[in-house]
């Protein structure tokens, strides 16, 4: 993407440049996943995570009437590991797999090539525009997708709102700037109020666009979206912007293009946004409660029956990373958006 370094960039445009510039963007030139990358996602911790998601997909597919044709569309499939395991698992249930169009929506050409190498399957199509999907019901999967979308930040100072910008005149001396802004005008364009009772605002225009498009598709064709991401439920927003390089937090304005830039999803904001669609429902659970209610511990016990003790210990260590309240269990949330008339709650039943 071309940028004008003579003027400061709004934060979301800076993040777009840092992550997705076709030549130097973080996601466009390297594989960020695994020990050699900068972070490890749940599908790469243990394949049991993806198996559980596959079983959830089957149960949700049944809840929408077991349609003869449906799309399973993963948003931002990383290195393809989750989709690989999901396809292998679903093939054990041919009545579901034979009706499924497996699809991936991915922006990074580099990651698309990684996915094609990992998946080695003719069963998958890559879609540029989710709005061009056919009229079949669609089940969307978004594991750590929304946290990678560029965000805007606004700060209230006395009675005025200021938007965060980044001055990139000298890329090795990038610095934050703040410009006064009319928050009411922004809300009018969004057709959505974000400033009430807030002192800090973080939101992603692109996330809202995806949610709007996906909600419209669900309303029209049926289906749902399962969102798995780290975030919080407080209605009060706070600053969560961060950069990660080699599994450690780093300075957002240093190593531009070589660090991941991310933030914590405000799931209350997502829920409020979805409320605009009157006939859609939004339910949220912690990753711990979702995975345990789906039987991940019991599945691990079955898998570990005939393996050496060292491998059994390693497996349960990995499961603990996913469900421990001090690790991913509470930090990560799982959100389902579906039609209200569908009373499906598998993975979301509250004790």
UniProtKB/TrEMBL annotation:
Pfam families the record matches: Methyltransf_28
UniProt superkingdom: Bacteria
UniProt entry tagged with the keyword Transport: no
SUPFAM superfamilies: S-adenosyl-L-methionine-dependent methyltransferases (SSF53335)
Keyword terms of this UniProt record: Methyltransferase, Transferase
Protein name (database record): Cyclopropane-fatty-acyl-phospholipid synthase
Organism expressing this protein natively: Pelagibacter ubique
């Amino acid at each position: 993407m071309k940028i004008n370094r003579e003027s400061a960039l709004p934060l979301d445009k800076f993040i777009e440049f840092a992550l997705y510039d076709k030549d130097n963007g973080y996601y466009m030139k390297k594989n960020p996943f695994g020990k050699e990358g900068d972070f490890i996602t749940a599908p790469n911790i243990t394949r049991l995570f993806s198996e559980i998601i596959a079983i959830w997909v089957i149960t949700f597919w049944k809840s929408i009437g077991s349609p003869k044709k449906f799309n399973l569309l993963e948003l931002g499939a990383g290195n393809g590991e989750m989709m690989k395991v999901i396809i292998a698992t679903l093939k054990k249930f041919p009545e579901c797999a034979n009706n499924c169009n497996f699809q991936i929506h991915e922006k990074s050409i580099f990651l698309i090539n990684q996915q094609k190498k990992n998946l080695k399957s003719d069963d998958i199509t890559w879609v540029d525009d989710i709005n061009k999907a056919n009229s079949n019901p669609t089940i969307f999967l978004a594991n750590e997708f929304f946290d990678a979308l560029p965000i805007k930040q606004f700060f209230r100072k006395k009675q005025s709102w200021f938007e965060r910008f980044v001055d990139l005149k000298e890329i090795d001396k990038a610095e934050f700037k703040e410009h006064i802004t009319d928050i009411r005008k922004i809300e009018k364009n969004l057709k959505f109020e974000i400033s009430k009772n807030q002192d800090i605002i973080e939101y992603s225009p692109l996330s809202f666009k995806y949610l709007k498009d996906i909600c419209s598709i669900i309303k029209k064709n049926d289906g749902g979206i399962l969102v798995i991401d780290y975030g919080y439920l407080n209605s009060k927003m706070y600053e969560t912007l961060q950069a990660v390089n080699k599994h450690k937090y780093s300075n957002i304005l240093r190593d531009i293009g070589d660090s991941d830039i991310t933030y914590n999803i405000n799931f209350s904001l997502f829920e409020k946004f979805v409320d605009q669609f009157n006939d859609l429902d939004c339910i949220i659970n912690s990753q711990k409660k979702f995975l345990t209610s789906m039987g991940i511990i019991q599945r691990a016990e079955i898998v570990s029956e005939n393996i050496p003790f060292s491998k059994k210990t390693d497996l349960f260590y990995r499961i603990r990373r996913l469900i421990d309240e001090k690790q991913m269990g509470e930090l990560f949330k799982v959100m389902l958006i579906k039609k209200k008339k569908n009373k499906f709650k598998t993975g979301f039943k509250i004790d």
